[in-house]
């Protein structure tokens, strides 16, 4: 999901009696590999990890789960919340019975929102708990859509998109209701936030033709080693500083490509690439599409 605010708006302030400004928001939110599965007693899923948050709800039966070093039984109606890069595995259904579950992976690129979600450390949210109550209706709707699977491709995509907005809203409500959100940054989380701010500034500087990104320079300014900065940033946001910079540049490239008044050559120059060929190759690595093909899809 993207909420994009125009950079310059008419002033019209001469007759304002009272008012207030809200923060600008520009965040990417992606639902990935959402699926419903009914499995037999022999089924299991091996140990794995990924850079996304995961929501897993048991619809029928119970399953044995391992997340990190914690083993537990996920009962019918229990919601499991798995943080990015957390090693986890399903060890199969309990007592040799059938089991059905719905699983959704959530990718969040905004570093602040990603960090706030990472503060939800509880793994199992039992049936009836606040988080389970907010998310269960959405996940059950997704399960029903997957179970019926009679919609056209366009309708199916719209229904899934609608569910993704509801998940985004529900997770925001969880953060607000549970008072998880904090503006206080201390220790490693504070350093990670500083690094994110430096990287965002560096992305803007690169687009203006200044020095390219180097974690060594940022680490030196903050008084830490590059290795420590990379480790702290990856722990907080689930991606490396360089990957985060690529995310910013990709987001900006997509926004610029959706504006037909900008030539692709100009966009490449704006983003700090030495020529169109270099930009085109990088954009295709990111999206598997050329800038021209993405622009045609956007019109």
TrEMBL record:
Keyword DNA-binding: yes
Entry superkingdom: Bacteria
Keywords from the UniProt entry: DNA-binding, Transcription, Transcription regulation
Membrane spanning stretches: none
Pfam family, one: HTH_18
SUPFAM superfamilies attached to this UniProt entry: Homeodomain-like, Regulatory protein AraC
Stretches assigned to the HTH araC/xylS-type domain: 193-297
Signal sequence region: none
Protein name: Helix-turn-helix domain-containing protein
């Amino acid at each position: 999901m993207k909420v994009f605010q125009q950079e310059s708006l008419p002033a019209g302030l001469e007759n304002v009696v009272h008012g207030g400004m809200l923060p600008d928001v520009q965040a990417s939110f992606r639902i990935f590999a959402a699926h419903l599965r009914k499995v037999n007693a022999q089924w299991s899923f091996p140990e794995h990890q990924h850079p996304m948050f995961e929501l897993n709800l048991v619809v029928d039966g119970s399953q044995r789960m391992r997340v990190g070093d914690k083993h537990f039984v996920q009962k019918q109606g229990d919601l499991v919340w798995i943080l990015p890069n957390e090693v986890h595995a399903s060890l199969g259904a309990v007592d040799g019975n059938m089991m059905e579950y719905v699983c959704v992976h959530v990718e969040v690129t905004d570093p602040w929102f990603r960090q706030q979600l990472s503060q939800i450390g509880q793994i199992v949210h039992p049936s009836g708990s606040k988080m389970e109550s907010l998310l269960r209706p959405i996940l059950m709707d997704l399960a029903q859509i997957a179970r019926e699977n009679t919609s056209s491709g366009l309708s199916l995509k719209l229904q899934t998109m609608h569910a993704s907005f509801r998940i985004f809203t529900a997770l925001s409500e969880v953060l607000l209701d549970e008072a998880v959100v904090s503006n206080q940054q201390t220790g490693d989380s504070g350093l990670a936030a500083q690094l994110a701010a430096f990287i965002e500034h560096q992305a803007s500087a690169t687009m203006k033709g200044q020095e390219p990104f180097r974690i060594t320079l940022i680490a030196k300014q903050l008084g830490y080693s590059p290795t420590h900065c990379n480790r702290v940033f990856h722990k907080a946001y689930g991606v490396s500083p360089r990957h985060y910079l690529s995310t910013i540049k990709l987001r900006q490239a997509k926004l610029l490509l959706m504006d037909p008044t900008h030539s692709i050559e100009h966009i490449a120059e704006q983003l700090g690439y030495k020529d169109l060929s270099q930009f085109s190759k990088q954009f295709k690595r990111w999206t598997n599409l050329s800038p021209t093909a993405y622009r045609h899809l956007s019109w």
